[in-house]
Design goal:
Layout: H1 5-21, H2 27-33, H3 40-52, E1 56-57, E2 66-67, H4 69-79, H5 87-101, H6 107-119, E3 122-127, E4 134-143, E5 146-153, E6 158-164, H7 171-184, H8 195-205, H9 211-226, E7 230-234, H10 248-258, H11 261-264, E8 276-280, E9 292-302, E10 305-314, H12 319-336, E11 350-351
Parallel strand pairs: 8-11
Antiparallel strand pairs: 1-2, 3-7, 3-10, 4-5, 5-6, 8-9, 9-10
């Protein structure tokens, strides 16, 4: 059933009031705050219908009403005003981001810290694994039983491993293997280093001692490491300030979830064509997030790699304000890292879930 404009205005007023106060909202408060030229009786009647339709609920018989996940979803999709940051806010964020980007190795965690400061919620900062490949192998002879494997990767990192052998190997054999690996094992992924490739290279090099398998195993180990994303949580303690998390058991479960980087890396990114994803309450797959909302925004890290920054908070969070700040941070990061164009203005595209 399509909501009338009047019902939408009342629902919007209830949500705005509840975001500000964290207290159930009654008809008197809506009459005073919304500017609607309606009597309290009319507003009470409309609120009762919104409750019957699943957009509001009444936590206690004598209390006012609070929004449901369905009510928040309609609010996010249709009703809330898309905020734009003022010049002072954008300048402050821009300056902070430039300072953070000077230390790219700490970029992901620093972005989360900045986002937590400007939203006052817990923030997830996630970086997808950077695509990388081995571009050069060197095998350095130490003695008859010892050599060093050195690999250079496309992200300019260098890895090495000291190998001790229970048998002797000639320096000439290592030179031959180095040529084989530079010819056949550079620029490929972990999945492409197959048993078939290893066995064929053993035959080609005349290796009967398992040296190809040792070096290939090191290459797989390196490529697996570069395929792991990064996950950081900043400001988790801020959740404890919200009345929704005063229940110790609920707070403990949520904080424990946020400390598990593997689970955080499974959070769904915005789909293609969308920059923002909003997950409200039960829309979250993880049970620990069923009473919370998550807003995720993606940004480009350069070199075909993306990051996500997201806010976790109560379903009562100020969606418009949070999304505006996250959107600006993401767009500014993409631009400052050389993959975007021009200064961001307001929101990007939003990905939503319809129940």
């Amino acid at each position: 059933m399509e909501l009338s404009d009047r019902k939408k205005k009342i629902l919007s007023a209830v949500i705005d009031s509840y975001v500000d106060t964290a207290e159930p909202v009654g008809s008197k408060a809506i009459t005073q705050q919304s500017g609607l030229s309606l009597s309290s009786a009319t507003i009470r009647s409309e609120m009762a219908e919104l409750e019957a339709m699943g957009y509001l609920e009444q936590p206690h018989t004598s209390a006012g009403r609070v929004p449901t996940a369905r009510g928040y979803r309609l609010y996010v999709n249709e009703l809330m005003e898309r905020q734009k940051l003022c010049a002072e806010e954008t300048e402050a964020l821009e300056n902070s981001l430039r300072q953070k980007i000077q230390q790219l190795d700490k970029l992901v965690s620093e972005v989360g810290r900045l986002a937590s400061q400007v939203t006052d919620y817990a923030v997830l900062s996630l970086a997808a694994p950077r695509p990388s490949a081995i571009i050069r192998f060197d095998l350095i002879y130490i003695d008859a039983n010892t050599f060093i494997i050195v690999s250079m990767q496309s992200n300019n990192s260098v890895k090495n491993k000291l190998v001790h052998l229970p048998f002797s190997v000639e320096e000439g054999m290592l030179r031959k293997l180095s040529a084989v690996f530079n010819a056949h094992f550079t620029g490929i992924t972990e999945e492409q280093i197959t048993p078939l490739l290893i066995s064929s290279m053993e035959r080609a090099s005349g290796d009967t001692m398992g040296l190809v398998s040792i070096i290939a195993g090191f290459a797989i180990e390196i490529l697996c490491e570069t395929g792991t994303g990064e996950a950081y949580v900043t400001g988790a303690s801020k959740l404890l300030r919200q009345p929704e998390y005063h229940d110790p058991d609920k707070a403990h479960k949520l904080i424990h979830f946020l400390s598990d980087s593997e689970q955080l890396l499974q959070l769904p990114a915005p789909e293609a064509g969308g920059d923002i994803k909003v997950l409200i309450g039960p829309e979250n797959v993880a049970e620990e997030l069923k009473d919370s909302s998550v807003i995720l925004v993606k940004y480009n890290l350069g070199e075909n790699s993306q990051g996500l920054v997201g806010v976790v908070g109560p379903t009562r969070m100020d969606y418009s304000s949070v999304a505006a700040r996250l959107s600006y941070i993401a767009a500014a990061l993409s631009r400052l890292l050389g993959s975007g164009e021009g200064p961001p203005g307001g929101w990007g595209k939003m990905t939503t879930i319809d129940n």
